[in-house]
Amino acid sequence: MGDLDQLHDNPKWQGRRFLNDRLDWNLLRTYLVIGEEKSISRAAARLFITQSAVSQSLKRLEEQLECTLILRRGPRFDLSPAGEEVLRIAEEIYGNVSRLAATVNNPEDDIVGKVRILSISLVQSPLYDEFLAQFHQDHPRVEVEVEVMRSSDIQSSLSQKTATVGLGLCRFPQPKLERQRLLRQRYAFFCGKRHRLFGQRGLPMEALLGENFVSFTSDQIGGNLSPLTVFRDQQGFTGKIVASSASFDEIRRLIIAGYGIGCLPEHLVDIDLHNGLIWRLPPAEGVADVDVFLLWNREQRMNRAETVFLQAFQRVLADAENSLEG
Known about the structure:
Layout: H1 3-9, H2 11-17, H3 19-22, H4 25-37, H5 40-47, H6 51-65, E1 70-73, E2 76-79, H7 81-97, E3 113-119, H8 126-138, E4 142-148, H9 151-159, E5 165-169, E6 177-192, E7 213-216, H10 226-235, E8 241-245, H11 248-256, E9 261-265, H12 270-274, E10 278-280, E11 288-297, H13 304-325
Parallel strand pairs: 3-4, 3-5, 7-8, 7-9
Antiparallel strand pairs: 1-2, 5-11, 6-9, 6-10, 6-11
């Protein structure tokens, strides 16, 4: 009997050989969410199933792979070395699976495919609007899908290669991701019509220092809106964070409701100012400028439609930047 025959007769080798035939890929998807959320309860909420179902899926996957994936530490857990590797493989698998529908190009000259864009909410940019209109006119058979999410989730998804490009905040360079500025947003302090400072003119900065405030969840040291945190620290703000959210709409709602003062992009609240829902607070020059970037994964293999979209977008942004410098 040859070496190859002996290998084929090895039970352990046979088990690994046929793993792909018996592995439930839904279990791998559940494990991917567990690894991303670092929490059984949050994974259950994201998948719209019970915590018990998530735990059972994890147990079944460990049985099928014949290894321990997570190491429990009371209410917390860490991924085992094998768990880390399985998570990496799961990210690659589902990054490719999510793009399968867009990989087949039409043999004709017309570009056919799908472009998936991840974007923060309320990206107001005439340049972006005009680009989308022109791209659709030039390539009417390309399908565009846009999903709105937080900047941190956009970065994570792009790292996993599950989308073509992203539009979001990215204060610091990220591994594997390239960025090109789309627009700059000026943030300033506002209060709602129920707040005691509403309507008061000529207020000094000192009038704000003890006020409670509403904050974006990324408004913290190391977050995408950390310039707002730094400004408050430098000015000596002593108020408490009384409400927070990752959503602009919810931050706006809480400020109007009178929970506290808060920072919002100036260009997004012109109508609210005009309608008397909010009031502009000092400093007159605003708090900080925050950039919104076009983001993409430099290591991602793109279909023809995605490549054309990204290259065209890059040219538009480069031309706009050059015209400003000129």
